[in-house]
Amino acid sequence: MSGNPLRKTYTVMVTRTTGNQMELETVQEYGAAMESAKKALDNTNNTEARIVENKYDDATRKEKKQVVKILNRDNVASSTAGSMRAGTGSNALAPEVMSRMTKSIINISLALTVLILLGGIIFRLLNQ
């Protein structure tokens, strides 16, 4: 038995303005497939790009294909504009990381507030 029995690849499929579908390329990583799909939509002859996840199980020798993302010009434009407005560009942090950081900062500030209040109460008790 091998260490990695399940192999994943991602295939970018495009739909032309004529309605024909064609396979653009197959890559190993989802990020590369997403970039390829976005570049494919820059071509005016392509109306839609789909990212298909291909899973191949070496043990059973079966292949499973599943569409994981469908892109068209409308949702690509809104997603890139939204990510730039939200600050998730190439040098920014992911929204999940920002959410965790915000929660951590709130928890730290609450803990400091409680410590200051307890310190004030203890100080008053000691001075009586």
From TrEMBL:
<keyword id="KW-0472">Membrane</keyword>
<feature type="transmembrane region" description="Helical">
    <location>
        <begin position="105"/>
        <end position="126"/>
    </location>
</feature>
<keyword id="KW-0812">Transmembrane</keyword>
<keyword id="KW-1133">Transmembrane helix</keyword>
<protein>
    <submittedName>
        <fullName>Uncharacterized protein</fullName>
    </submittedName>
</protein>
